[in-house]
């Protein structure tokens, strides 16, 4: 049978994509070995030198829950900020927000409140149910706006939950609507455990697009099952042009056992460069950052592109 080309299904993919680099936060939050603040600061600096303009730096969460982020203020204080770069931090409640803004010199440009599409994950990750999480976020959003700070939300486990199993687009839309109701500016849809595939990714992101404008919707794909790039391509076909990514493919959520890192920034850049999509980010610069952090952690990046380019560098200098 001859394949038919369907003109109806051919959409224009974006010509420019914004990458939100989450390596310093999502990438390191679950790291078992201690990573000192100086290393985190150097990582952020290498990433901004590579041209990344949106950097998730740290989290103001309980140090008992996530010890790796206990140095949040120290890291924020150490980063030499670059004009035009937006620095964001996670703040799950007013306590976290107040700590994040206590010192005006290290105030973030954006905060992230993170909810979940399943009750079970919400309980495990932030110790409360979905409705209660929204009530905790409400004053955080109000306070952030009062300080002219933008608010992004993450809707975790939107494509599958380690405790509940399947998560439906209706469940995703319920949380999207609750987030919209409290006034968050941007909606990120997250595949926390990397089980999503393109059509399911599109179905979930479509629900966010019903309530937020295209430029305020993003995808956050962990790559546990190797589907993240396919999911990103599927989102590009919908016109979505903002994606989270993590240098060297670092990352994982402490409350999503077995989930590996985010899609590697290097892999996303290689894909986008190949598609002729601009990002303003230097792949070579991101490889520098990947080489740095991988050297500190003592292991190779979890990125095919990263490893291929590092091998090329090594053979060129041999
Ligand atoms: P809780 O236990 O419900 O809070 O924690 P509480 O109000 O009952 O307070 C208990 C203790 O925590 C108290 O201390 C508070 O002071 C302290 P104690 O009196 O026992 O010494 N506390 C805090 N300390 C520092 N900063 C704070 C804070 N709040 C309370 N902001 C809380 C609620 C959310 C804080 C807790 O459950 C927590 O920290 N969870 C960690 C959540 C987390 O960081 N998860 C990983 C990030 S999300 C993620 O990775 C997903 C994402 O990448 C998207 C995706 O992939 O899905 C974004
Ligand atoms: Mg994540």
Average pLDDT rating:
95
Proportion of β residues?
5-15%
Instruction: List the uncertain runs.
Output: none
Instruction: Provide the helix percentage.
Output: 40-55%
- The ordered string of helix (H) and strand (E) elements is EHHEHEHEHHEHEHEHEHHH
Could you outline the blueprint of secondary structure elements for this entry?
Blueprint: E1 18-21, H1 23-29, H2 37-49, E2 54-59, H3 72-78, E3 86-90, H4 94-101, E4 110-116, H5 119-126, H6 130-146, E5 150-156, H7 169-181, E6 186-191, H8 198-209, E7 217-221, H9 228-236, E8 242-245, H10 265-274, H11 283-297, H12 304-317
Parallel strand pairs: 1-2, 1-8, 2-3, 3-4, 4-5, 5-6, 6-7
Helix pairs in contact: 2-3, 2-11, 7-8, 8-9
Q: What attributes characterize this protein structure?
A:
alpha/beta; TIM Barrel; 8-stranded parallel beta sheet; 12 helices; globular; binds 3-hydroxy-3-methylglutaryl-coenzyme A; binds magnesium ion
Summarize the structure in words.
With 318 residues, this protein is of the alpha/beta class. The chain has one domain: Aldolase class I (TIM Barrel, Alpha-Beta Barrel). It contains 12 helices and 8 strands. The chain has an 8-stranded parallel β-sheet with strand order 7-6-5-4-3-2-1-8. Strand 5, helix 7 and strand 6 form a beta-alpha-beta unit. Helix 2 runs antiparallel to helix 11 and helix 8 (198-209) packs across helix 9 (228-236). The radius of gyration is 19 Å and the shape is globular. The N and C termini lie far apart (52 Å). The mean pLDDT is 95. Bound molecules: 3-hydroxy-3-methylglutaryl-coenzyme A and magnesium ion. Residues 26, 190, 192, 220, 222, 253, 262 line the site of magnesium ion (MG).
